[in-house]
Amino acid sequence: MLSPSIKSELKRIVGKENFSSLSEDLLCYSFDATNNPSKADAVIFPSTAEEISLILKMANAEDFSVVPRGAGTGFTGGAVPIEGGLLLSTERMKDINIDEENLLATVGAGAITGDIQDMADALGLFYPPDPTSAKFSTIGGNIAECAGGPRAVKYGTTRDYVLGLEVVLPTGEIIVTGVKTLKGVVGYDLTRLVTGSEGTLAIITRAYLRLIPAPMARRTMYAAFAELTEAALAVSSIIGSRIVPSTLELIDESSLKCVEEQGVLKFPELGGILLIEVDGDEGSVDEKAARIKDICVECNSVEFRVAEDKWEVKDLWKVRKAISPALYRIRPKKINEDIVVPRSKMVELIRGVKDISTERDVVIACFGHAGDGNIHVNIMIDGDDAKERERGEEATKDLFKLTLSLGGTISGEHGIGTSKAPYLEMELDRNSIELMKRLKDSFDPKGILNPGKIFIDKE
Amino acid sequence: MLSPSIKSELKRIVGKENFSSLSEDLLCYSFDATNNPSKADAVIFPSTAEEISLILKMANAEDFSVVPRGAGTGFTGGAVPIEGGLLLSTERMKDINIDEENLLATVGAGAITGDIQDMADALGLFYPPDPTSAKFSTIGGNIAECAGGPRAVKYGTTRDYVLGLEVVLPTGEIIVTGVKTLKGVVGYDLTRLVTGSEGTLAIITRAYLRLIPAPMARRTMYAAFAELTEAALAVSSIIGSRIVPSTLELIDESSLKCVEEQGVLKFPELGGILLIEVDGDEGSVDEKAARIKDICVECNSVEFRVAEDKWEVKDLWKVRKAISPALYRIRPKKINEDIVVPRSKMVELIRGVKDISTERDVVIACFGHAGDGNIHVNIMIDGDDAKERERGEEATKDLFKLTLSLGGTISGEHGIGTSKAPYLEMELDRNSIELMKRLKDSFDPKGILNPGKIFIDKE
C-alpha cells in the first residue's frame, strides 16, 4: 500500500489532477483484454520522462511497484497491476511529429497507433504494424509487446520499425537507445531488448519510428472453402509460390459461426475463408491477384472475389473485424492463444487442433494471420464452469505441445504476461530463462517494475 | 598464457589437428581489416556447439580469454585477440540448409555469406544483407557485427533477417534464442541482443535466417556530377520523392582519384558519382529508373546511364568495388569510419567533411551507402607519420562531433570494437554504458569472452 506521504509526494510530482486513488478510477485501470482485473493502489498520469524518473526513483527508495500501461488492450495481462502498487498511464504523452524528409516519426509513448498511421497516411507515408487494436492501443504498449497484426506477413512487426527509444530505467535514469537514422550499431541493442519486454525492463516515453512510402495500389480478395484444410493448403501454396501478400488471414468455421450468431453475416456450409491483400505498384497487383486466384481455385475454393471498390474492401474486412468481439461476447472467459507454426505446417496444425477439440470436448475457433503462421486459437470455454475450465487448460497445453512439435512458438505477438507465464518453460530452456532473469536484475535490481510478469518464481 | 595442460586438454576436445600454437598460424589469425594485429596464444577450430561449450567452461575454470572469429574481415578490431588468449575460429561450422517451403535458411556460424546468397539465389530466393566482404566474410561475423551493405536502404541490415540463433554462453551453456518462424515474442529478445554484440556476449554457432522471394527485375544506374554537393542533393531528393532504391551509393572525387591512381578507370573533372539500383516487378523498375533520371538531371548531373545488360551492370559496380582496395593500397593505415546521418543532412555532412579536411590538412575520401545516410569516411593518413596520425585523430573527433550534431551515429555497420571504443562516450551517455556493462556481466561474469572490446575501462 502507498502511504499518505508517498501519495502526497506523487501528487507534487505530477500535479494533483494527474493522480488518483479513487475506487472508480482504480477500477478503470484494473484490466486489459484478458478479463482478469486487479486494482492498483493509485493511478498516476505523468506527462514527461522527468516526472517518470522522479516516480521511479521514489519507487526504489520507498519500495513500491510501478506498472506501466498504454491503453490496456493487451491479451496476456501485461498492464494489469496484479500486485497492486502504482499504475502509471502514459496516455498524456501523445505528441506525434513526422519528419517527411527522413521518413521518421517521433512519438510520445501514449500516442494512439492509429493516429500515427493516419498522420503518416495523410503525407503519403506508411507505418505498417497494424494490431487489430490500433484504433485504441498506444504505440508504447505496441512496442512493449512487440505488436504484430495482419500486415506482418509482408512488413514485419513493431520491432522492425523502432529505430530508437527514450526510456526511463526502473532505477530512474532517462536514457536514449538506438538511433534516429536508418542504421546504427553503437553498443548493445537496447532498443530491441526493451521492445517486447512487456514493460518489465523500462518505461518507454518516446519512440523514433521508421516510416516507409505508402504502396501505390492494393487489391483485397476473399476466398471461401468447404474444408478448412483446403484453405490452409492454399495458404501454404501461396507462400510456397513466392508471392508475398501484404495480408493473408484465415477464418475457420467455428469463428464464422460465432459471427453468424451475432446476426451480422451468413456463411452457409463453409469450412473456412481466406482474406487476402496484395499491395505494390499499380501494374503488379492485378497480376499477383490473378496468381492467387489460380492457387485458390486449385485448392478447391467454392468462391473467390476481388473487391471492386473501397466499400467492398470494407465489407470483406467486416467479417475479420467482427470475429474477436463476437467470440468475446459468446465466451468472455475464453482462452485466446496466438501460436505460430512454420507456414508449411498449417494443415498439420489445423488437423491437430481439430483432434484436440474432439479429445478435450471443447469448441475451438481459429482465425488470424495465417500468412506468417500466426493463428489465434480461441478455446471457447465457459470460464465459470470449473470442469470446462479444466478441459480448456488441458487443451491449451495440448495446443502448445502440438505447436512446439511442429517447430513453432507459443506466442507470435501477444507476449507472455501472466496468462502464458505458466507455460514459459515449455518453450524456453532453464538456462535461457535464468539469463533473462539476470538481465531483468541488471535493469531493475529491486524488482519494482511490473512485477509478476513473464517469469513465475517457483520456490 | 595457456599452460601445457590446458593446451593438451583443448586438443583432446577438438582433435589435435584442430588446434595450433604454431607461430605462423597465430600470425594468420592475428589481424582483421584494421591492420592492427595481435597474436593469440593458440588457435582452435571446433566443429560443434558442444565442443565450444567445453572450451568455454574450461576458459572459466582456468581463467583464459576466448576470442571468436569468423573470417577476420571486420573494420574495428572485433576479432583481434588484443589480450592474447585462445582464438576460436568458427570456419569449420559452415553447413547451409535451405527450407524452400518456409523461406528459411539454417546455417552454421562459419558459412560464407556469399555462399548463402548463392544457394538462395539458385532457388529463386534472396538473402539481402550484402556487406562488401560477402564473398569472404562469415554469417557468424556478420551477425556479431550486424553487418549492413549497399542494399540496407531498402532491405535493412543483418538483424532484420535473423529469426533465431544457437549460441554458447560465455559460461558454456548452449541455448537457442528466438524462433524458426516469422514471428515470436516469447521472453526477452536475446536474438537481437546478441546480434551486433561484437562477439562479447556469446559465441554464435548456428543461425536461422529469413529469406525472401528474389525480386523479378533490377535496373542499375550511374549518375555523374561536377560537384559532390549536387550528388548529395540528388540523394536527399530521391529519398524525399518516396522512391526506395535497392542501392544508392555515393562516391566522392577523392575516392575516384584513388581508383584512377590504380590505373583502372578515369573520371575527369567529376566531383562525385552515384551508383543507383532499383528492383521489384518488371513493370515498375523502368518507371522508377525514369523518375530517378529526372531527379539527377534536375540536380545537374553531367552524365546519366542505365546499364543495358549484365556486363554493363558489372562494369558500373567495378568502380564501387575498386574503391576500398584502392584506398587501402594507397594508405594502409588510413582511418576508416562509417558514420550515419539523417538523409536530409547529406549535403551538410559533405560540406562539413570538406571543412575538416581543409582545417586538419588531411585528405578525406568519402563513399558508401548514401541512401541510408551511411557514409564511409576515409581519413587518408600515413600512419607512420606521427604528426599526420595526430591530425587524423583530430579529424576523426571533428567528424564524430559533426555527425552527432546532425543527429547521426558514429557507426552504421562496423561496430565499435577497439578502434571506436575511445569515442563511445561521445554518443552514449554514462547510464547507457553502465547498463550495457551490467548486461555484459550477466552473460560473462568472469569477462573471458572477447575482452577489451566496445568498452574501455577508465580507472
Topology:
Two copies of one chain form a homodimer.
Chain A: H1 4-14, E1 19-20, H2 23-28, E2 42-44, H3 49-62, E3 66-69, E4 86-89, E5 96-99, E6 104-108, H4 113-122, E7 125-126, H5 139-145, H6 152-155, E8 162-168, E9 174-178, H7 190-194, E10 203-210, E11 212-213, E12 217-225, H8 228-240, E13 247-252, H9 253-261, E14 272-280, H10 282-298, E15 301-306, H11 310-330, E16 335-340, H12 346-360, E17 364-369, E18 374-379, H13 386-405, H14 424-427, H15 430-443
Parallel strand pairs in A: 2-4, 3-4
Antiparallel strand pairs in A: 1-2, 5-6, 6-10, 7-11, 8-9, 8-10, 12-14, 12-15, 13-14, 13-17, 16-18, 17-18
Helix pairs in contact in A: 1-3, 8-10, 8-12, 9-11, 12-13
What multimeric state do the chains show?
homodimer
The fraction of residues in strands of chain A falls at 15-25%
Number of strands of chain A: 18
End-to-end separation of chain A: 24 Å
Tell me, briefly, the overall form of chain A.
globular
Structural class by helix and strand composition of chain A: alpha+beta
Q: Mean of residue pLDDT of chain A?
A: 95
Model description:
2 copies of one chain form a homodimer. The model of chain A has no long low-confidence stretch (mean pLDDT 95). Chain A has a 7-stranded antiparallel sheet with strand order 15-12-14-13-17-18-16, with helices on both faces. Chain A has a 5-stranded antiparallel sheet with strand order 5-6-10-8-9. Chain A has a 4-stranded mixed sheet with strand order 1-2-4-3. The two termini of chain A are 24 Å apart. Chain A is of the alpha+beta class and 459 residues long. In chain A, strand 8 and strand 9 form a beta hairpin. Chain A is built from 15 helices and 18 strands. Chain A is globular and about 70 Å long.
